[in-house]
Each structure stands twice: as structure tokens, then as C-alpha cells.
Give the backbone structure.
Amino acid sequence: MSETATKTAPPLEKKTTVGNYFVSNYPPFSFWKQEDVPDYRTALGQPPKPDTPLGIYVHIPFCRKRCHFCYFRVYTDKNSEEIRNYIDAVLAELKLYAKQNFIGGRKPKFVYFGGGTPSYLSESQLRELTDGMKELLPWDEVEEVTFECEPGTLREKKLEILHEIGVTRLSLGVENFDDHILELNGRAHRGPEIGRAYEFAQGLGFPQINIDLIAGMVEETEDNWKACIERTREMAPDSVTIYQMEVPYNTGIYQQMKADGKLTAPVADWDTKRRWVNDAYTALEQDGYTVSSAYTAVKDKARTSFVYRDRLWAGADLLSLGVASFGHIGGTHYQNLHDFAPYIECIDRGELPVYRALTPSDDERLIREFILQMKLGHLKFSYFNKKFGTNAAERFAKPLQTIKDWGFATVDGDDLRLNREGLLQVDRLLHEFFLDEHRNARYA
Ligand code: SF4
């Protein structure tokens, strides 16, 4: 790319076409390989690095319906016996880990139940899963337990149990409040279920309730989005997470686009989605919220942390359990087998169900942490200089200059700051920091 082109025309796409926008890790998943699984086994045999916190992620791959925008590994057809078998497998997987040098005896600092729909589990399944987990690796040093919920799966009893088992951050996948839009996008829940679940949860006194929204679902309009913002302000949750609609390859929306021979997704363009998120943040700021990352606004910054995100983005170990889940231990990335039956069969044989892995080089680890922390909108170079023994401002001089020239960032001494416009498209800017061989990679 020429210097002139860089300065005058950021090559940022306007239309929403197929592909991943959100960057959740680095190097891209398509570079993780089966041949590198021995690296992961070596990492497991080592003692952990002192002062590196451990977190646990549990993937619950069940949903009532598959949303048309979903790109996760989920199943909508499993009966209660299969779900019980899955819980047994997850606990057996954790048991295998508890015997390993790297994990045994450690106490997790954070636990995250994601999916899929963790709240799809019944009350007794939830008890069985969490009691079993605590027996193997006690939760007495846990600072945060996040639990993702689909509002239509929450009854009062289930919420009581979630509170009792120690969930501290309840995350409600609201996405939109309008029944027509929810239906059209394949969501299982409806508007009235959101209010009911939220009220019950509030009454129980969870330390933090987050609601997730998506800007730009199919048939989203200006008026609808305004109504979503107003409804969110009325609810006044502790934190609000807003994603911009993206259309990865393995979504129902893309399948339909392909069938119709369309290249552009039937959702708002990126400028509009960014404006909508900005409108939401501006309204929330008027109510005293602080924008704490590209995706999140929090009501009380001093009280509301997000330990999972902050620890993970600072290089914590993440023990990931369940089908297709992604983890990171002792500097090696790994992913589990991504189909239900092979995952269960592997555990039944007493083997860890890892399918591919990658050990990033020191430079790749630096890039990973740097780009993930850029999503917070502010970072300090000195943190990276100290941790990685390299001058981060010099290492990233070129991409930093590029995003400054585009008008999205400023560097002031030790501080890198993204302005709102930069923050709202940070995931595209991160590619500037990638190694050449990782640019334009598919995140699959
Ligand atoms: S609820 Fe979440 S995980 Fe389940 S299908 Fe919808 S988007 Fe996917």
C-alpha cells in the first residue's frame, strides 16, 4: 500500500459482506495445526509460570434454536440424556487436567460459562456441573464467575441456583427488544421474557448484570435502534455490551446470501452500525456510564470489572473445556475437537480431546496482547516494554503511524489512545499489526 493511499484512504469496507470482523485471538485460528498438538502436551507437563492467573472456560453447546447470525458450535437437537453425558464428559475432562503438572493444585481466578446457551441446562444439571468442578479445582479464590443466559430459558428457580452456585456476572443475551426482529433473526426468546428475567435477576442481587445487544440485525431500523437504546436506559444494567452485526461464512444469513447470489448481507452497512453504537454509547454516557472497551459501557467503573476479559487480554492461562472450545496454557493455544460424538468418545477413552494447537513466537505473543489491549481504547507502552523486553512503540512504529494518519489514534509519551471512531472499528485496524502471513486470514 502506498504512503499516499494510506494517508488519504483507509481501505475499510463500507458494505457488510461475508467474513469475520471480530478478532478474538492471534495468530488466526486457521494457523493452528494438528501437528502442533505435541507442543500443548509439553506445556501441560511443565509447572505453571509463577503469578500467571488461571481461568476456566466451559463451553455449553446447546441452544433452543440456531440464530441466523450464529457462527458457534451449537446443537439444537440433544435430549436430556445426551446433555447429561456431555456434563459427565466435561467433568471427566477437568479430572484429566487436574492430574497434569500444569493444572493440578491450582485455584482458578475466574470461570466463564459460554456457548451456546449455558442457561439451557436444567437446575439439577447446573448443580451437578458446578459441584463437580469445585470438587476438582476449588473456587475459593475465584474473583468472577460469568454465566451467559438466553432470557427465555430463565425461570426464577434457575436464577436462584445460579446465584447460589456463585455466579457474579450474569450476562443476558438480549440482542434486540423487538419481537419481529428477534423472530426474523432466528432468536428463541421474545421481548416480555427479557423484562421478567431481568427483574428476577435484579431481585436476587447478582453483583453484576450485563446485557448484550447487536447493532444491525436483519431489518434493524433507525427507530428500532433508538427504542433499543431507550429500553436499555430504562433497565440501567451494570454493563451493556454491543456487538456490530457481522456475517461469517458458517451463518444461516450467509447460506441465504449464497442461495440468492448476493454479495452484500441484508443488514446495515458498517458506517451505520458504528453510528448506532456511538448513539448508544453517547446516550449511556449521559446516564453516567463509561465506555470501557470497543464493545462495553459500564455504569460504575470503579465497581464493575470484567476479570475474564482483562486477565485473558493480559496473557492469563485459560483452561477450556467442552466441544470446540479454545484455550491457552503455558504460552500454547489449543482447540478441542469440534464435533459432539468424537469429543465424547475421546474423553471416554481417557484422552484429552485436543484437535489443534499453536505455540506463538515471542513476537506473536507480543502482537496478541498488544492488539487485544487496543480493544480497550488505551494502553501503555511501558507495560509491553517490561513484559516482553522490547520497545513496543518501535516494534509497532509502522502500523501505529498508519492508524494515526487515518485519524484514529494518538500517541502521547507512554500512552496510545484510540478515539471513538477508531475504537468503534478497532477490529479492522488490528490487522495492520499482524504479521504479513496472517493478514486476510480466515478466522475459522
Ligand atoms: S443463542 Fe447464541 S450460541 Fe445459540 S444459536 Fe443463538 S447466537 Fe448461537
Notes: Residues 63, 66-67, 70, 72, 74, 115-117, 150, 173 surround iron/sulfur cluster (CB under 6 Å). The domain at 29-311 is CATH 3.20.20.70 (TIM Barrel).
